[in-house]
Amino acid sequence: MSVLQRFEKRLEGLVEGAFAKVFKGVVHPVEILNAMQREAEAHKAILAGGRTLVPNRYVIDLSPYDHSRLAPYAAALAQELAQSQAEFIGEQAWTVYGDVIVEIERGEGLDTGMFRVTAEVYTGGDVAPVSAPGGYDAGPPAYPAYDQGGGYGPPPGQGGGRNVRLVSGDGRTYPLQMGSTVIGRGDQANLRLPDVGISRRHARLDFDGGQVVLTDLGSTNGTMVNGQRVSAVALNPGDMIQLGTTTLTFRVDG
After folding, report:
1. Residue from 102, 22, 24 nearest 69 by CA
2. Is residue 129 within 8 Å of residue 116, measured between CB atoms?
3. Residue 203, class by beta-carbon neighbours within 10 Å (0-12 exposed, 13-18 middle, 19+ buried)?
4. What is the structure's pLDDT at 13?
5. Looking at 142-151, 176-185, 187-196, 243-252, which range is the least confident one?
6. Are 85 and 33 in contact (CB under 8 A)?
7. pTM (two decimals)
């Protein structure tokens, strides 16, 4: 079942069909999701290491009439759109910074049935907006700043970044690059581990050059750091990460 088909299936049960009536004859959610997918495709940027960065924040402007009709369902629709867009991005093995965010707003000047999608790379504070028609504004994509006061040193190329890596129990070393690294046993994982206790997309590491944040991606067996189950945590040197039966030690050199 495709992302669009799963999205439509979830919409069928939303508010017991009332949602579908709201969109009868005007803009339809599937059209919005299609446009979001096109925006991601059109505004890809290649990161170091060959990974592909796409926008993670999508602002949907609806006409005043459509927006007023949608208001009771806006939050639910935004959540469904965000989930489906995240699934689409995952299937393409693209990279985003943080979670996929969808916001639905009132677009003045839009006729009924019309909508506008604006996509951007959102890092939790700074935004790298998409410029039409040729991609991102000049300059490299911003990286999220998880800890302005701490960290492990400046980003590479800015005063000598440090060697940040994971070390497995059998001595294997996995260097971390700037951006996001997905750990799992599936084809879409950047760091693949042959452990049946690990989900296909188990956890994500976000490295901004100053600090690494570990986020569990809704894994079946959970993610442990120093014996404690976590959803998201900033890592410190020496932290022990447990995924399935695999233990990884977080190391910072230099």
Report:
1. 22
2. no
3. buried
4. 63
5. 142-151
6. yes
7. 0.49
